[in-house]
Amino acid sequence: STEKKKLEVGTEGTMFPWTYVEDDKIVGFEADIMAEISKRTGYEIEMKAMDWSGLFGNLDAKRVDTVANIVTITDE
Question: Does residue 12 sit in helix, strand or coil?
Fold first, then answer.
């Protein structure tokens, strides 16, 4: 198949320096990690910005293939 493999990646895109928007493009540490994954695997990466509250729901619903977003443990 000549179709390029693609991964759709959900991210909030508002957490400098991990993922944030610059010149209408999602950039930052996690975007750099995904770019390296693309280089090593040949997958095209499409970063999709979305609200935090829907990030994992979109993953569960298979609207994205993975999530690249800072996640921390809180008391909540």
Answer: coil
Residues linked to residue 34 through DSSP beta bridges, in sequence order? none
DSSP 8-state symbol, 55: H
Element (H, E) at 34: helix 29-41
Residue 3 to residue 20: CA distance in whole angstroms: 29
- pTM score, two decimals? 0.85
Closest CA to 34 of 72, 62, 6, 55: 6
Residue that the structure tokens 């999709």 belong to: 48
Q: 21-44, pLDDT tens digit by residue? A: 999 999 999 999 999 999 999 999
Strand-pair category, 6-11 with 25-27: unpaired
